[in-house]
Fold:
Amino acid sequence: MSETAVLNPICIFIVIIAFTLGFISVNSFFKIKNHGIFPVANLKIIMALAKTGPMLGLLGTVIGIGELFSSFSKTGEEQKVADLSHGISLALSTTFAGLIVGILGILSCYFLVSLINKKRK
Structure:
């Protein structure tokens, strides 16, 4: 494996989901705070993104580990421990990104729901 850091395409997609999640969350916050509008559709989108992020992270991990093991069978030579740990860290980076999206999405949704409940009282 090369020493340069290569971003997994799934990890890049998860980062795009994270930015989308952040934009929708901030947009919803200002709609609730400034205009008293309760964006139920936005909350549904936030929850969908929060549920999708970890699943994409897991998919990236499975693909990354699969590619790592297939590279072992193709070369037929022993791999260094450093190569193995580097490949696993690249595969697990998608899981990390997916979990961050999921956690932030759920926290964002609960925060917005509590804000809506405060506004209704």
